[in-house]
Design brief:
six-stranded mixed sheet, single chain, about 35% helix, globular, Rossmann fold, 2 domains, alpha/beta
């Protein structure tokens, strides 16, 4: 590569934490104007490298980072931003009750001669940035909490773009987006590329890499295992092998379906202005898919079943018997495990250890003898699930808030597997999880139904729905619009009932 084409270069970058070598002698370059993809399993080192680049962490001695050919030391996030490096993290950083413009100009509001905020100028500049990116439907005066997840992410990008960055880092930017929203995001990326912006793009979705990526760097266990010079022509089987260190024979492991009696029956449940007259059955040994666009009512249906939101009508039957579920604790008592869409705030106690999170729903039933906690059994069980789900951590006493997003997700998954429920509801079970871990989770779902569990999977990824489900319910505007057998299901048919 001509050195003049290189906007960013890493040389011999390492990072060591107590007991963990997070990065080991990483060296590669990023070309000006490229979308450079970082690939690797959760815990491979991608997030650590990004945190070094954004000044959150400092690399070990002996390495160097060159920006526009000059060696730089990134002492803190503010210094990184001043050097033109902007970041859109996977977790939303916006303040919900503030307007779009207030969020975009937070701490750098334009002021008039009296030192007061110049609101007219702020809204005008915000509107100009929005129009420049072609997202005219967003009103600068709208409170962020009233925006969709996709539009909030666009606001994050506008916020970064308004600071004139030369490099923008996008961390799993499509994990919460529908297909149409993903295409809108790609249009924005293309627009910014034409303005000379370079992107570092972190993703686990193979199909996106070919569509938006130019070049890629692959990480495994803190080391660089390969580079791709042209994402458009890359052999994805070889890429997956470099990511996971093994060949995934089948993306969706095969299984024989042995569908039994009805395990869960939902009869006419309603949530005002959200879902209407929802009725369906799921059988023992069956994986039932719940598909539909974002906002179709899939997650609200799951929350209504487990008592996370109140329903105004309808009944729930388990094994043919009516049950009263008014709170998630009732669902747990009746053998329903629910993995929520929002892992971080609904499924995980961030200030508790991995062990405590995994065993929490099962403490009374599995780990207590009277008033005494069997700590040895609790530790052994948590360790078993850590190994089974390949949760990357020095030990199970580590606080969950220190895990990567993907590993946090695995902890929530382990929690419900540990509970030995008979009915599982998994809302976006593989969101933010790497390709190798996805295959493992599909196999775990197969193992659950082989043991006669009933499983409901909510997913925005149509290939996933088609690959693992025996039957698919499609939702639109809070209602079920189709019930499709696996043998009759296609992406086109599902979409036709979704829109």
């Amino acid at each position: 590569m001509d050195m003049s084409d290189s906007i960013l270069r890493f040389e011999n970058i390492s990072k060591t934490f107590p007991g963990v070598k997070a990065l080991n002698n990483i060296s590669f370059e990023i070309r000006r104007g490229d979308v450079h993809v970082l690939l690797g399993e959760n815990g491979a080192g991608k997030s650590t490298l990004i945190k070094i680049l954004t000044g959150v962490y400092q690399a070990d001695e002996g390495g160097a980072i060159y920006l526009n050919g000059k060696s730089v030391y990134l002492s803190d996030p503010l210094h990184s931003r001043k050097l033109g490096i902007g970041t859109v993290f996977q977790e939303n950083s916006l303040i919900p009750h503030l307007s779009v413009a207030e969020n975009i100009f937070l701490t750098r509001e334009p002021r008039n001669a009296s030192g007061l905020i110049d609101w007219k100028r702020m809204y005008g500049e915000c509107d100009r940035w929005i129009r420049e990116l072609g997202v005219n439907h967003i009103n600068p005066r709208t409170q962020v909490r009233r925006l969709s997840v996709a539009d909030q992410q666009i606001v994050e990008i506008v916020k970064v773009f308004s600071q004139n960055p030369s490099i923008v880092i996008l961390d799993e930017p499509t994990s919460s987006l529908s297909e149409n929203e993903i295409q809108n995001l790609f249009h924005i990326i293309t627009t910014l590329k034409k303005k000379g912006v370079t992107f570092i793009y972190v993703s686990h979705r193979m199909e996106e890499i070919k569509q938006i990526g130019d070049r890629a760097t692959i990480f495994r266990d803190g080391s660089l295992t390969g580079e791709i010079d042209d994402c458009k022509t890359a052999d994805m089987d070889k890429v997956i092998n470099m990511i996971v260190g093994r060949t995934l024979d089948e993306k969706f492991p095969r299984r024989e379906s042995h569908i039994g009696k009805v395990a869960l029956e939902v009869c006419g449940i309603q949530v005002p202005n959200t879902i209407y007259d929802i009725s369906f059955q799921v059988h023992k040994g069956e994986v039932l898919g719940l598909s539909g666009l974002v906002g179709s009512g899939r997650t609200s249906t799951a929350k209504a079943i487990v008592g996370a939101i109140p329903r105004t009508a309808g009944d729930i039957l388990i094994d043919g018997e009516p049950v009263k579920i008014h709170a998630p604790s009732d669902a747990i008592a009746h053998g329903i495990g629910y993995l929520p869409e929002d892992r971080k705030f609904e499924g995980l106690l961030l200030t508790k250890s991995i062990k405590e999170n995994i065993t929490l729903p099962s403490l009374k039933r599995k780990f207590r003898k009277g008033c005494i906690l069997d700590g040895r059994k609790e530790r052994a069980t948590a360790e078993e699930f850590r190994k089974k789900l390949r949760i990357k951590t020095p030990n199970i006493t580590r606080l969950s808030k220190f895990l990567s997003g993907g590993n946090q997700q695995k902890v929530v998954f382990a929690k419900w597997l540990c509970s030995e429920a008979s009915i599982y509801i998994f809302d976006e079970p593989t969101r933010g999880i790497d390709i190798g871990a996805k295959s493992e989770i599909y196999q775990i779902i197969n193992d659950l139904v082989a043991q006669e569990a009933a499983v409901i999977v909510i997913s925005s990824e149509l290939p996933e729905i088609l690959g693992i489900c025996d039957r698919i319910l499609v939702m639109r505007d809070g209602r079920i619009t189709a019930n499709i057998a696996r043998c009759d299901a296609t992406q086109e048919k599902i979409m036709s009932y979704s829109i």
